[in-house]
Design brief:
Layout: H1 13-32, H2 36-64, H3 73-92, H4 94-119, H5 143-152, H6 177-187
Length: 194
């Protein structure tokens, strides 16, 4: 078993496929083939991708702060639950939908400003994003299950507890079965054959 890499959950084939679907659907398919399928496809794709993005942010935060970490089932579950609750609220509750439109509009403004600057046009004003609140979109919540599957396939631990220190180096390493059994053999020698 190799040492985990922070944010490697984003490289799972299901996550990469969902990002591809999201980009193609939002930037081409919805405009050229509007309808029920393209309306729901981005919801499904986003619900696969976003929990793993949150887990990746948690892992990278630990790396940047030089804190020990390992893939965590608890972090993944909290990210998935938070994503599902937020998605449902945005789709079903007017004030949550309005907050989403404002927050996402502010969050994407730097990208819009960069595109305008590179294109030689005036900087855009801050604006809300568009949102269609469709209660039937909550059917896409099943996609969170795929996010949980993709994240769990990394061999996540039950919780993000501390890692044991490597002997002599002070470096943090994941505890492995091979390490435990080798250590047990050294400390508990077998009795000599008679």
């Amino acid at each position: 078993m190799s040492r985990p890499v922070a944010a490697e959950g984003l490289l799972h084939p299901a996550v990469l496929a969902s990002v591809g679907v999201l980009v193609i659907n939002d930037h081409w398919a919805k405009a050229h083939h509007p309808g029920l399928v393209t309306g729901k496809l981005s919801d499904f794709a986003g619900l696969v991708f976003f929990p793993l993005l949150l887990q990746a942010a948690w892992e990278l935060g630990h790396v940047l702060l030089r804190q020990p970490w390992r893939p965590s089932a608890r972090v993944l579950q909290v990210a998935a639950l938070g994503t599902a609750v937020t998605f449902a609220a945005v789709k079903l509750w007017g004030p949550a939908g309005e907050a989403y439109r404002v927050v996402l509009g502010v969050a994407r403004w730097p990208l819009d400003a960069l595109a305008a600057s590179l294109g030689g046009t005036a900087l855009p004003a801050l604006s809300k994003v568009s949102l269609t609140q469709d209660p039937t979109d909550v059917v896409a919540l099943v996609a969170v299950g795929l996010a949980l599957y993709a994240g769990r396939s990394r061999g996540t631990a039950p919780h993000p507890g501390p890692l044991p220190a490597a002997q002599g180096e002070g470096e943090r390493l994941p505890l492995r079965v091979e390490t435990i059994t080798a250590s047990a053999r050294r400390s508990c020698p077998r009795p000599a054959a008679r």
